[in-house]
Amino acid sequence: MAKEEAQKEPVGIRAWAPAVALGWLVPGGGHLLLKRTGRGVILLVAITAMFLCGLMMRGTMFTPQGDDLLTILINWGGWVGDACGGILYLMSIWLGYAQPDVAGHVHDYGTKFLVTAGLLNLLAMVDAFEIARGRKS
Amino acid sequence: MPKMNLSHFEAAFLFSLLVSAVLGVVTKNNDRERVQYGIYTFVCFMVALFGIGWLMYLGHR
Fold first, then answer.
1. Which pLDDT belongs to residue A88?
2. CA distances from A34 to A28, A70, A86 (A)
3. For a 10 Å CB count at each end of chain B, is N or C smaller?
């Protein structure tokens, strides 16, 4: 009975916030903090590889822009995706690796790789949140 | 930063591989299910890649 009540007890923000914050900053960092080393390393390698491939394909970083609804959706959505890359996104902006938008299928793939890397990191953050809350192992 | 020039197939293959690895890790509850789901999503990507590729080829003949 006491064990069931302990399981139902809400988990405070201090239990999951560090894992989610570190998970955003460093891909797989939340899992590493929660001692899920194997999964954390796979996430770190896969997401970082995807982001670096996007940069080497000269993909474009989105910036928030306002115009018609479709432009707002694409640019804000893309920017959120890019920004979810954490330190990878911040470093590439600070070091001037953000590329101008150019035509070509390789650049287009690169842009998608960059956004997808951020969105995969978002999934990893949600997973770290669920592990920290005790909903997943 | 070196430049990477990939064909459509190479880029889609790399994309599938990396996304499948992450989806396998974050979705399931034990290692066996994670590996199975990662392989399953990779196979789905490949089927879609070749299927849509053939559809576009046949549609442009």
1. 96
2. 10, 39, 18
3. C
What residues pair up with A99 in beta bridges, in sequence order?
A60
Q: Mind listing the pLDDT tens digit for each residue in A61-102?
A: 999 888 899 999 999 999 999 999 999 999 999 999 888 878
Q: What percent of chain B has pLDDT over 90?
A: 85
CA distance, residue B18 to nearest chain A CA (Å): 5
| Nearest by Cα to A55 from A89, A103, A24 | A89
A97–B3 C-beta distance less than 8 A? no
Fill in the DSSP letter of residue A103.
Answer: -
Domain spans of chain B, in order of start: 17-59
The residue with tokens 């789905």 is: B44
Cα–Cα distances in angstroms (integers) from residue A38 to residues A110, B31, B40, B42, B58, in the given order = 27, 10, 20, 20, 44
The predicted structure's pLDDT at residue A3: 52
Chain B touched by A106 (CB under 8 Å): yes
Q: What is the ipTM of this complex?
A: 0.91
Measured CA to CA in angstroms, residue B59 lies from A77, A129, B8, B43 at distances of 32, 46, 18, 24
- Sign of the torsion formed by the C-alpha atoms of A57, A63, A64 and A65: negative
What confidence tier does A1 reach under pLDDT thresholds 50, 70, 90?
very low
Report d(CA A133, CA A14) in Å as an integer: 10
Contact A123 B23 (CB under 8 A): yes
